[in-house]
Amino acid sequence: MLDSPVRQTGCFVVKFPSTVWQQVACHPVTEGPFAPSTQPTIQASTIQPFAGGGGGNDYVANSPTTIIGKAVGEFVTSGIKSESDSKAGKNRYSLQINSNFIYNVATQLTDYKTTKAWEQFVYDNWDGVVFIEYWLFDYANTYQHCPTYTIPNQKWHNDGYGDCWENDNGLGGLQEVPPTQLSTVVMSASADYLGSGNDQVIFCTPTACGLNGWVDGALDLYQNWVNGGAAGGGGNVEFNVFGAGGGSMAKFNSGTSIQVSLSLYGESGKSITPVCGVGGITLESNNLNLQTAEGCSVVGQGMSFWENNFPHDTMTVSYSTPGGAGPTGAPTFKYVDETGNAATYTLTNTPTALWVGRGKASAWSVTPNPLVGSNSAERWMSGQTLKGIAATETLNFAFYHQYLQTLYYSVAGGGSPSAPSFTANQFGASASQVLTLASTGYWFDYDNGYGTSWSVTNPLGGSSASEQWVTSQATTGQITWGQTIAFTYQHQYYLTMKVSPLNSGGVSPSSGWQNADAQVSINAGARPGYKFLAWKGTGAGSYSGSKNPVTITMTSAITETAIFVQLPP
Predict the structure, then answer these.
(1) I need a surface site. Which of 44, 202, 206, 222 has the fewest CB within 10 A?
(2) ∠ at Cα 176 (191, 180), nearest 5°?
(3) How far is CA 540 from its chain centroid?
(4) pTM score above 0.70
């Protein structure tokens, strides 16, 4: 019956198994107003969770280029036990199919041109009525009154803010469907669909359908169901279960879950592949939240999304790559959603709020680590704990850009010093690695374009004023790529050279460090008025005696004193 428009205005019913529309009397509608949202901006869809079901927060189906002729909405539900409207009480709600805003309208319902209008197709379950509601925004503010032309038996109303609204004559007496049976109904809204010339709302239950229609020229929706727009423009359609009017909220019991499905068709009946948008148009709402696991999905001409009010925690997650981007794949956040189902989300650099299940069974994890694009010499690795139990918290997973440093050390000249430590940043903090005699790889952070500083111990532990192990290599540098560095430490002893008495002569070499086991030639020279007498040495490898020059062996720290005597006058 949804594909069988009636080519005249009025009210019609069909009771199955009949497939013939029968005209019945229409009646003035007292319901309303079903006000617009204060935040009707439409944006491209996202899986960011938010309070759903109207109030400016909803998914909408967008037709990027094709004028919309018909929209069909239906539900799949679970867990509904009760519902109460925030103003009207128990078992009160509305179903709405809402158009985008219409701009620069001058039609038979308006005395003057208005800058913005809007059309709603409504089912109110209180008395089983379907009707169309029209809005002219800021009309009374501009012209000091609402339009004088009205639909028979109806009139324009000022909403108190300078906007004008009016209902057509609706079809009553349809089934007052309880909230628990939402999954049994189908609703459609159309504008000049298949050349009917009318705007029509059809509401069907398993036993009957009701149709209410008025001339499309009321707001010329058939020409304008295209100029609202998600990102890139196009016509929008919002469909959901809402409060019973006046900006009220339909409040469902905890544990309610509803899948909202919406299909779009052009005026000729050809299906339209919609695009998911986020925004919402009506002010009425429900207490269900847009489910994050599925978000909004499109299959063929159909768009669908889930909303529920399951208990949940909110995890706000993102990832970063300190030291510079470069991996070819973002990490995946695996979690249990608020419905208890396993879900995945590809992390981005933008913090994103996800609703997660509550309790010990709600585990999460992040994979892979390191990220795709890493190799044996370069990687993006996280040092954080990448698994846990869900809770309301904000987490950024930092995958550091790192290069492999292959490091080892050796000692020339013997001895037993402590091993050196190589210090650089690991996972954003200074870290030291004790080197070994074997070649070993260590990962350290890289700072994009600048490198990060490193340093190595020099001299080695165990050194003193008389004995040391030192390297002549660079002991600081920058990590800018993967590299191999072998540090060689030389064992040295201190050679102390003296003369006695003072100023009686000179010695060479000067006091200083000498390599262990080195053969060192020492020489003494007398000043005028003195002559060399002998060497007095202490320490293993030293020399005591009158030879000059003489060679000593640095097998320990050595002190050599050249003794001079004064010549007679």
Answers:
(1) 206
(2) 100
(3) 71
(4) no
